[in-house]
Amino acid sequence: MQRYYTRLCLLVFFFIILTAFSETKSQTIEATWNEITITSAKPLPRGGASAIYDPIGDRVILFGGWSGVSYDSLNDTWEFNLTSSTWSEITTTGALPPERVAHVAVYDSLLHRMIIFAGSNWWQTWYNDVWALDLTSHKWEELQTSSTKPENRFSHCGIYYPKNNSVIIFGGCCGNIYNNWLSNEVWELNLNSLQWTLKNTFGESPFPRDCVTSVVDIVNSDMIIFGGGGCSDIRALNLNTYYWRKLKDFGSNRWDHESVFDPLKRQMIAVAGWGGPNFCDVFDVETNSWLDVVTTSTIPPDRSVPAVIYDLTNQRVIMFGGGIDLWTSLDDTWELSLRSKFTLSIEPEPLIAGQYATFTTANGEDYTNTYLTYSLNGLGSYYSSFLNVVLDLSNPKLAGVPEISDYRGEANWVLMVPPSVSGFNIWFQAVQYGMATNVVATFIQ
Q1: In what order do the strands lie in the sheet with 113-121?
Q2: In angstroms, rounded to a whole number, what is the distance separating the alpha carbons of residues 176 and 73?
Q3: Category of 421 on φ-ψ map: left (φ > 0), alpha (ψ -120 to 50) or beta
Q4: How confident is the model at residue 51, as a pLDDT?
Q5: What is the C-alpha separation between 278 and 178, in angstroms, rounded?
Q6: CA distances from 171 to 126, 183, 251, 279 (A)
């Protein structure tokens, strides 16, 4: 799968502000949800389905789940075309996997197939089987794995680890409907030998749990797990040493959510579920911090265990369905776009009359005309038809000439502060077409 990441690597940028006490403030992320209008046939309403991103076919592959219409587990397979925004049911061949919910699905980039493991049939029959769907021929095949294997389970999590060509799973509710327990085991399935191995881990192991999610960070060779029933922690398991380490705690329990990973920004995106204060939260691996998320659109209705993928090509999250409760599920399709907030900073602050000051924007559009405006009259509301944006200044004026932002979306001005304006309050805001930064209010000494 690494070859699909290569084209994305030039876009990496993280914006960090240092306070006077040298503490790192959280980056602010703007989240925009958009419900995709579906004019084609679409899957039944469902929760607990699995989904993977097929980078070759530029599509979502959806399997299984439970229907809030028939109250049954499902074993149908659908694809969502990410270009045309249409759903279509896939006609598969071979024996079908039994109906199931709350299973794990991963994309095997080596053989271009979807691998599913375990799950349950409406919580009656619990599985520990492994199936593969060839994404070229659309043929299902049960993989005959070693006799030593994980217990039957559901509501576990798992990832595909391309360096070992293996599936790694964690946790879940194990056993059967009459005798069950929560797990914190880590198992690895080698897809070359089809051998399962119970891994010996080190460090402080996570509590046993179900309703947990995981993502893989290839750069650090980490499987990152988050939340689960009664849990608020986020932990990383290094897949070279199998050593667990704690990351920044979320602060409140989160379960029945879904998590995906943006390999470009190395950020985990968690959506939906119960217990958290927000519908969407973002964890930054580089800074080991939860970012401030500001939603700029209508938020989807609350739900649990939707089917979610990260669309690498278009750098967005795609979400389908989810459950409101055990008897009611959804069939809507949403996209989520995340971008770092367009910001302006000034140095020094306050400004000093007769000396130079530096004005810097971050997280704008790249290679775009960027304008620095100011006002001596304070805050207000001014619509610029030329830039199609509302400025938050009263009677704004241009400071200096427009600058073209660089490949990071950053623009800079170094301007002399006139000696004649000493003692004034002044407000600054930078703009690009269609968007404006925060307002910086300061004083001129």
Answers
A1: 104-108, 113-121, 125-134, 140-143
A2: 17
A3: alpha
A4: 98
A5: 35
A6: 14, 5, 21, 24
What order of strands is seen across the sheet that includes strand 202-203? 202-203, 243-246, 234-238, 222-226, 213-217
pLDDT computed for residue 363 by the predictor: 87
**Whole-prediction pTM value?**
0.81
Angstrom CA distances, 157 to 136, 216, 227, 260, stand at 26, 11, 11, 12
Token representation of residue 323: 């459950």
At 159, give phi and psi (nearest 5°). Answer: -140, 160
381 CB contacts (<8 Å, ≥6 apart)? 390, 391, 392
- Which pLDDT tens digit goes with each residue over 399-424? 989 999 998 889 999 999 999 999 99
CB contact at 8 A, 133 and 77: yes
- The whole-number pLDDT of residue 122 equals 77
What fold, for 2-340?
Neuraminidase (2.120.10)
Domain range annotation of the chain:
2-340, 343-443
- With beta carbons less than 8 A apart as the criterion, state whether 45 and 329 touch: yes
Distance CA 7, CA 3 (A): 8
| CATH number listed for the domain at residues 343-443 | 2.60.40.10
* Separation between Cα atoms, residue 51 and residue 307, nearest integer Å: 5
Cα–Cα distance for residue pair 363/15, rounded to 1 Å: 8
pLDDT given at position 71: 62
Q: Is pLDDT above 60 for 263?
A: yes
pLDDT, tens digit, 9 for 90 and up, residues 168-188: 999 999 999 899 999 999 999
Phi and psi for 10 in degrees, rounded to 5? -70, -15
Q: Is the peptide bond before 301 cis (omega within 30 degrees of 0)?
A: no
Beta-carbon contacts of residue 245 (< 8 Å; ≥ 6 apart): 203, 235, 236, 238
Sign of CA dihedral 244, 250, 255, 257: negative
Check if the beta carbon of residue 156 is closer than 8 Å to that of residue 210: yes
The reply to whether 343-443 shares the fold of 2-340 is no
